[in-house]
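Worked problem 6 (solution included).
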Amino acid sequence: MMVSIIPYLKKINFLKFLLLLCFFSQQIFAGEISIKNISFKKNEKNSYLIFNHDINFSGDALMALNKGIPITIRMRLQIKEKNKFWFDKKLFTEDKFYQLRYRNLLNKYQLNFHETKTIYFDSIDDIRSKLYNFGWNLGEINLSDSSEIHLIIELDHSKLPKPLLINLNDESWGMKAEVIKFYRELL
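Solution. The predicted structure is:
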């Protein structure tokens, strides 16, 4: 009797292992954007929102980037004044884009800020270290305790080539980070 049960137990363990492997492979191949350490700095003329963000490319997004397909990241910043009894007042709204691309002939990664400034890097880790500290000039803006800062960093799907838009339900294309902070939390 024991001899006939052992093969089934081995199969059950194998099935558990296979299911765990499938679950963790979904987590490994998913791209990720994270936002950390948001701070607010003010000098005599301008105010700056300084934050760290980190992008981990993996799965289909990394494969597409290494094949030379440009990947555009959109950063959206909205600052609102919260009102209890009326609509919120928008103080600041701005979108910024940067594009990553691999240049096969140069064997380098290209980073374009606002389609004007181009920088070349040898590896993705060099790009990640360059993007880690980012400062956003807000101009002359006065924030109160009820001001809400809403920051979104995401992969811009509208700038991807049409054949890749078919497979957007894959988790590696769902890279997005969103942070909502109040002004008093940043001081």
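Discussion: The chain has five helices and nine strands.
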